[in-house]
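Good morning C.,

I know you're traveling, so I'll keep this short. The sequence:
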Amino acid sequence: MIIKKSITCLTLSLFFASTHAWTRHQPNNPKGCLNQGFEFKDSFTTIKPAKANSIFLLTNISKYPIQLQLHGQPKALYPKKMTSELYPRRWTSLSTMDAPQLQLSCQHVSEHGVVEIIDCASALHICQYTKVKFGEHNAGTYWVIQNKPRETIVSATITKGILLR
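The tokens, ready to paste straight into the viewer:
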């Protein structure tokens, strides 16, 4: 009887541990944010907006802070920096307006300042809002909101004048 209870407890512990690991690596998307419009390949991520006006939400699923670097960025109406720092379990929103395709690299900066390119597929979870309405004052490709908890990323993006549906 004791052995049977021990096996049951061990089985439940393993189940909850694996469930916890899954949710840690695959966070829930905010409502309306779809797992589309990107491709992980050769340590990089290709951002492919489904529509000319899109918002991507990215979250760091690694244990370390990472830097996100955009490459191939078209001219923005208001130039913004193309690097974003993202702490573990934090979210960032990226506006892609009239950008057919962007490359994104992920980097880890060690305590000694050494920059190492890491595989984006193991560090990021991404989703895309395709039903987006931009105001005239916030057009372009840029980091809208950076390094926020999941609970506030959507409302912070809306506060910047971008309607997400």
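Safe travels,
E.
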